[in-house]
Design brief:
The complex is a heterodimer of chains A (about 270) and B (about 350). Chain A is α/β, with parallel strands linked by helices and about 270 residues long. Helices cover about 30% and strands about 30% of the residues of chain A. Chain A has a single domain, classed as 3-Layer(aba) Sandwich (Rossmann fold), CATH 3.40.50. Chain A has helices at about 50-60, 80-90, 105-110, 125-135, 150-165, 180-200, 210-215, 235, 240-245; strands spanning about 10-25, 25-35, 40-45, 65-70, 75, 90, 170-175, 200-205, 220-225, 225-235, 250-255, 260-265. Chain A is globular. Chain B has about 350 residues and is an all-alpha fold. Classes of the chains: A alpha/beta (about 270), B mainly alpha (about 350). The interface of A and B includes residues 101, 106, 111, 113 and 149 of A.
């Protein structure tokens, strides 16, 4: 396990300087410089094609930038051994597809991979960990079902359970609630928020839903066309002005007493 | 869990294989009893003279004719089974095997080339050159397929299979040209392309056995990584699996295994496809169990098929034809079943 970050709350998890990235010459991220800090749930927001997922891939070390530097915990990301990185970072992909009918338990057990030697079998403690991950995500009853037979939302929860079994220092979510209904979305975000608050598991989440982001994230980064438009604490940057610039809609942001967080309403701007 | 499944199946399968080998050795034109088979092999292995009461002709037939062929059947079946399991796991495609990638066709092209070169008077010892050319053909095909698929840096299974189909089509035409060159002796190539274990020798066994052992061990070593590959490249990489290296290493190993099998037996289809497929239904998709069991079931199936054609059927049908005739309809059945159950049934 990595050293706990709870006592070093202001430390930088990532530090990006002048990062460029593109696919086949088409730029996706342009001159991104950012610091992602520990001790806050960070949300990455932006319209479709703004580079959110690519940014997450860069943070996870799944892609390398064509220019600029990325440091993770004070050390160049590229120099981290992949296996060690896998013990610190877990990714919940947007579309969790499993080929072949592995059982739910088998898939969640894969989360132990970076912690186990090649021929090691899971110990009693590992098994208990898997059981807790299954229970926490509400899929214990599905443990023996082939994962290919599950609904999209159930699969998504399997992906989260596997990421929890990975015992990461930082959890990276790529629109993890996009396949879930509101009840399961809230349940999942509450569960992750709880891990963040009690066990100091850090979270960086690409989000689509502004209202869920307002509830879930302490810190927001807005991307548009591959560039960072603005970033800061949720209550400072989640404003009609930002939303207007980033998404091109008219927005109203209110403090909602019912949910006890900010609430965003929006409409298309009136034609001029 | 998977370790226990594998063990629980492996021991009876190993016993069945030993029994099958012994039983197969008794069958043929000459009747030999099972105890005599063991007595002959025991004496041979220890370099002793044959015990009294055993027909010396029977001893020669069993030890020098039947045994190499029987063991070759087991090893070729095992090699094809394991390489099929590996190809399917890497390409994330339950319908993949060495044919999908064009590797068998490449190996067959290499071996046909040796046959044609011999017809044109090039003196080469076929025992050595056929395996070398078959591997050269298989590995060359893999290299071309990888090159064609490499435009897509992640080596996705779709681009790999498409590249395999393209290269196999070209190689089939090239084999056709070799057949044309071989003219009257085309029968040599055709018989070999249809697959046969009739010519198997102890030298073949010395080549196949270490390859089967080493190849299966490497595949088992990477079996947990292979399982994780089933959840997608991005997820696998984030779990610390080096997906590109894993693909390259295991494709090379499975190619080598296929090429060696092809160099001894010619093209034997459907074993590599159906064995892992069937096992996935029986024991689940966990490669830690699937890969070692594919060796045993592949070996057992090919042993049964070869014994059928060698000793039971009135005429010796080329084994590749037999496996295609038996495996083809079974495959059609699986294919239809897959459509009925929806593609997620695998």
């Amino acid at each position: 396990m990595a050293p706990p970050l709870s006592e070093r709350n202001t430390e930088n998890l990532w530090s990006l300087t002048g990062v460029h990235f593109g696919y086949n010459g088409t730029p996706v991220l342009r001159d991104v410089s950012l610091k992602l800090r520990a001790g806050q749930c960070t949300g990455i927001l932006g319209p479709n094609g703004s580079g959110k997922t690519t940014l997450l891939d860069l943070l996870a070390g799944l892609q390398t930038p064509q220019a600029g530097t990325i440091e993770f915990l004070g050390r160049p990301l590229a120099t981290w051994p992949k296996k060690q990185l896998a013990r610190l970072l877990a990714l919940v992909p947007q579309d969790f597809m499993v080929r072949f009918g592995f059982s739910v338990r088998e898939v969640v057990e894969m989360g132990l991979h970076p912690h186990l030697h090649r021929f090691a079998t899971p110990s009693e403690a590992d098994r208990a960990l898997i059981d807790r991950a299954l229970a926490a995500t509400g899929i214990a009853a599905l443990a023996d079902r082939p994962v290919t037979r599950l609904s999209g939302g159930e699969k998504q929860r399997v992906a989260v359970a596997r990421a929890l079994a990975q015992q990461p220092t930082v959890l990276l979510l790529d629109e993890a609630t996009s396949n879930l209904d509101i009840h399961h979305s809230l349940e999942l975000l509450h569960l992750i928020r709880d891990r963040f608050e009690r066990q100091a598991m850090q979270v960086v989440a690409v989000m689509h839903d502004l209202n869920l982001a307002a509830f879930f994230c302490d810190h927001l980064i807005f991307l548009k066309e591959g560039q960072v438009i603005c970033q800061g604490p949720t209550e400072e940057v989640l404003t009609p002005a930002t939303i207007g610039t980033v998404y091109g809609v008219e927005a109203e942001v209110t403090a909602n007493a019912f949910t006890n967080c900010r609430q965003v309403s929006f409409r298309l701007p009136a034609a001029l | 869990m998977s370790g226990r499944i594998a063990l629980a199946w492996m021991l009876p399968l190993a016993a069945a294989l030993v029994f099958g080998v012994a039983l197969s050795a008794t069958l043929g034109y000459l009747d030999v009893s099972i105890p005599d088979v063991f007595a002959i092999l025991f004496a041979k292995l220890h370099g002793q003279t044959m015990p009294a009461g055993i027909d010396p002709v029977a001893a020669t037939v069993v030890a020098d004719v039947r045994m190499p062929r029987i063991l070759a059947a087991v090893l070729v079946g095992g090699l094809l089974g394991v390489s099929g399991a590996v190809f399917q796991a890497i390409l994330l495609n339950p319908l993949a095997d060495s044919y999908t990638l064009g590797i068998s066709t490449g190996a067959a092209f290499g071996a046909s080339l040796v046959i044609v070169l011999q017809i044109f008077g090039l003196v080469l010892p076929p025992g050595v050159t056929i395996p070398i050319f078959a591997f050269g053909g298989g590995a060359g095909t893999l290299a071309v397929v990888l090159f064609l698929a490499a435009g897509d840096r992640r080596l996705s299974s779709t681009s790999l299979i498409l590249a395999g189909v393209i290269v196999a089509a070209i190689l089939s035409a090239a084999i056709g040209f070799l057949k044309f060159l071989a003219d009257e002796q085309v029968g040599l190539i055709v018989f070999w392309l249809m697959g046969s274990l009739a010519g198997a020798s102890w030298a073949n066994i010395l080549l196949l056995a270490p390859a089967a052992l080493a190849g299966t061990l490497v595949a088992v070593l990477y079996s947990r990584d292979l399982n994780i590959m089933a959840t997608g490249d991005r997820a696998a990489t984030s779990l610390g699996v080096n997906t590109v290296r894993l693909r390259l290493v295991l494709l090379a190993v499975a190619t080598l295994m296929t090429a060696l099998a092809v160099s001894v037996s010619g093209i034997i289809g459907f074993v590599g496809l159906i064995v892992p497929h069937m096992l996935r239904h029986l024991v689940g998709p966990d490669n830690r169990a699937l890969i070692p069991l594919s060796f045993f079931i592949g070996g057992l199936l090919l042993l049964i098929a070869d014994t059928l054609t060698r000793a039971v059927l009135p005429v010796e049908v080329p084994i590749g034809v037999l496996t295609a005739l038996l495996g083809g309809p079974f495959f059609c059945f699986l294919f239809k079943k897959r459509q009925r159950d929806g593609a997620t049934a695998f």
